[in-house]
Amino acid sequence: MSITVPLLKAAQAESAAPAATDVALDLRGVGKTYDTPGRPQVEAIRNLDFQVGRGELVCVVGPSGAGKTTLLRSIAGLLDVTKGEVVLDGTAVTGPPEGMAVVFQEYGRSLFPWMTVRQNIELPLKEKGIPKAERREKVDKALAEVSLTEAAEQHPWQLSGGMQQRVAIARAVAYEPTVLLMDEPFAAVDAQTRAELEDLVRSLWKRLGVTVLFVTHDIDEAVYLGERVIVLSNRPTVLMEDVNVDLPPERDQLSTRSDPRFGELRGHVYSLIQKAKAGHRPEGEEA
Amino acid sequence: MSPTQATLAPPTPSGAATRKPRRSRKGRPALLGIAGVAIVLVGAELLSRTGIVNPDFLPPVTEMYATLFRLLGEGEFWHSLVLTVRGWAIGLAAAMALGIAAGFVIGSFPFLRAFTSSTIEFLRPIPSVALIPLVVLLWGTQPQSAFVLVVYAAFWQVLVQVLYGVADVDPVARDTARSYQFGPLRIARSVIYPTALPYIMTAFRLAAAVALILEITAELVIGVPGLGRDIGIAQSSGNVPETYALVIVVGLIGVAVNLFARFAEKKMLWWHPSIRSEHS
Amino acid sequence: MTATTYAKKAFLALGLPLILLAAWWIASAGSTNPFWPSLQTILQTFPETWTPERLAADLVPSLARLGIGFSLAVVGGIVGGTAIGLSPTLRALSEPVLEFFRAVPPPVLVPIIALFAGYTGWLGKIVTIALGCLWPILLNTVEGVRGLEPTLTDTAKSYRLSWWRRLLFVVLPGASPRIFTGARQALSIGVILMVISELFGANRGLGASIVQFQRSFAIPQMWTGIILLGLIGVLLAAIFKVVETRMLAWYMGQRQIERGE
Description:
The complex is a heterotrimer. By secondary structure, chain A is an alpha/beta fold.
């Protein structure tokens, strides 16, 4: 197993908030087995160990059925792990933790259809007890970040899929989380919108210095977005490889994707996924 | 809608549910259900026995069931039961036949649909009990009185569902059928009917319940022979346990009707991707 | 252009009702059958029968009882249905019991409630209406709460919304389309029970007076009562629709877009 503890780049360290530790998220020997009576036991995740540094953007890829969603739900505190622990900001996660925001794949179903865009973004802020004037300001700012200022009073279902997902991102951004989890957020939008949203995530990440864990099944997307790509094996899931993406921090759809290094990394991750699909596992691991 | 990524998670989204150690979860709901029934029965028995509730109003459950078993041995009871079920079935069948026929005809022609919609919207909410005085004048306590009330109430349920169903036909499927030169009858049979079938089954379920309500109402209020009338007689003659026993019987018929309707729905729609959830 | 569209709309909406009324008018004109008086006679009898005093004495109490009973059922059904919908244990415990109670045709409650509350005053009638309206609302609320989109629940959880905020901003709005479905079914049952409850015991009220007309063979008056009852049914349905359209605007808009209209 080749787990490389990431070294924070100077640029990221600058933008990150001052904190006691430079590790935002720490997975320590996490495992998850579903044990439903009347059904065979399912070992979804066997053992996962990795860290996400503060201010890092890390992508997780794996073959379909690799337990990506299980992993994300465990990190989000929506699912209990059966082994090991997930530590956020030095505290073990037992339920949905403070300082974490999740952007789900199903944008159409994660926004409250009975609320306007503004109300959707405002609701978690209300829960935080932020006063009204400040809430308004934060919502306006978040909407401006995703360039949706004019849609504030509309209902989510009046917007296109890409716009809806931008609302979900704005809601997460306004919440000012320590870690932003994204669960295949662009799997259901068309290719052009997808490229725009990818660039949006990159630029938000840079401007706001937020830590992002981005789960995807798209290899190109993972390499294009991530500073590191964590490749998962097939079920029961272990870590295949933690790939460091040594592309320049300034990325754009044209030049980055035609960069030879991008092609190499992409090829490398691709072959890892193919191996994972074929049932190949890291040394010392049996299926 | 975006298809949900196939996850490994069995469909237990609730965190609370997964947290609890579960050993024999499968049999649990059934056991709890039996416990729920037991609580109600024992509770009612105790309320009555201890006198917290006047036993003249709420006799002990055991006494109700004793009366019920006595009734089961009486021919008159069975006669009433048959009359009630027959009245319900005939009325329901007529309402289904009329509703489906009218629904297909009206639904198939956009002009008819637009032309009749205001009238349907107006006639539908008219409570069928408004017709009680009229049917009493015309037929008195004869079964026809109940029949008219049942048909009037159930017909609209069926008609509206069938109209939804016919409207739900995929335009592409209809155009495909037309482009292959299908005749109107073949289109009705091979395109419209399969689409409308789930709606017809929903209509059956809703109409079956409404028809029973109106059948019992007619018996109770007008005096059409049947279990409803027996309930009225038992109550006015002060036979409280029998009143309750008959109400229990009527309730059980209602349960049977619901179960039958749901069973029929499942049987008929085994091929259907999803058993529709209706918003009628 | 618009004038013709309006004319077409008006023709479609009013055409058939006018034809039917005209048919009734012509068919019943000069009728000598005592049970089927002419429409003209009925319409002439209407204002003399339903004087403001009579409306105040008969119609207002009927509607007030319906209003009170229905409101009680709405509150009880939503509270009970939410509790049962949110708790799997409570749901398993109550399922067979509810299955029975909802299957009992509501009119048979009348004789039972008459035992407890008597049937001369308002109490028995209100209880009858409330109990009859309760089950459709309760059961639909349970289904609505259970059918909540899991992603929405997850979102609410991950943003750590408090229990009551989840209830108020997520669970109840999410269940509201089903709650309205139940309330609509309940309303028509409520109208039936409003009438039936007045047929027992010597009483005033809309249902009672219609039956009195029938028993005293005041046939045109009876017909006016039937028509009035029909109008009330239609009016209540219309009011309900207005409220529903307002409160479920988001739902209807969303469905329209999903169906690609």
